[in-house]
Amino acid sequence: MEQSFSTVEDIIADEDFQAWYLAGNETARQSWETRIAADPALRPLVQEASQYMDALVIKEQGLPIQQINAAEQRLMDRLSTAPAAPVVPMKRNTSRWWWAAAAAIVLVTAGLYVFNSRLAKPSSMQTAYGEIRKQQLPDGSTVMLNANSEISYHNGFEKGSSREVWLKGEAFFHVAKTPSKARFIVHTDRFDVVVTGTQFNVMNRAGKTNVMLTEGSVTLQLRNGQEIKMKPGDFVDINDQQPDIKTAKEENILAWKEKKLYFEKTPLRTAAHQIEELYGVKITLADDEIGDRLITGIMMNDNLDVLLKALETAFELQVEVRENKEIIISDSLSDKGHTPARTSKKVTN
Fold first, then answer.
1. Does one domain contain both 145 and 267?
2. Of the candidates 102, 119, 136, which is a domain's last residue?
3. Are 113 and 65 in contact (CB under 8 A)?
4. Cα separations (Å) of 174 from 139, 171, 339?
5. Exposure pattern of 50-72 as b/e (b: 16+ CB <10 Å)?
6. What is the mean pLDDT of residues 31-44?
7. Which of 91, 154, 191, 279 has its CA 20 to 30 A from that of 119?
8. pTM here?
9. What residues have CB less than 8 Å from 287, skipping those under 6 apart?
10. Which CATH number goes with the domain that contains 200?
11. CB distance 42 to 8 below 8 Å
């Protein structure tokens, strides 16, 4: 049964209203818009409740949480011990206003902690082209970033109920459990990974988004509202919001942690694009036919020159490295009468 609202106090105490006002929750906003559309009489009450909250938030904004708690306690003490006194008639009942104010301050006290956490200057960790880096997060979790990747998170996230990280690129997470079993959430372009303590790999790069779970359990929350429960060994690839769920070899997906690249019947154009992302270079294939060539193998990925030489030797390719970091790949067995000159120049990242 839908809750009815007849007073400002009822609205201020409503959890959906709090989620909308304090956290900007989109679902809560839509819920209140639906209610107001169905009952236009609610609109002035909602506006008045918002005005009370606006006034209180402006006064308290930016104060330390300890000071806000102390102010809240002083107000509650005064309300509980104040002697009865005549009330001067006003447009609204004064005691009712103080009830709303007290309730709002309690909400603002809780909400400002959320605001302060969200508005705090975020921390970030990033890797350069060709670099792999491992680091511990504030809650004791560890993250290993692949080349040309970045995560960001708020400095105080280990103190909150949920630990949130935003990922661009690829990373392997080993999430530490907390006494409160706080959730750890990795945000990507197509889904969120929600866990409490586990190990998993996430790719969020150039339109490609996937997850490999190696230990524990995770829940994927897709943008269309779908949820996917994963178990160890599961590999989920998301393309246009359509999940492809399958099993995969852990050593293949995680080869990058050992500074290796794994290819299994991979079109050369796909492999070339992957190298571009990791090293910040431009690769041009001589023609479509060579781009369709499938390659399979594991190659060392700690040096671009060595990697290119390995590709050239293993798959009968001709590799030319130009001054502007452009790399031309053609078929070394081509009989088209053009064989690019090899160069010994190294590519600097």
1. no
2. 119
3. yes
4. 11, 10, 48
5. bebbeebbeebeeeeeeebeeeb
6. 79
7. 191
8. 0.62
9. 330
10. 2.60.120.1440
11. no
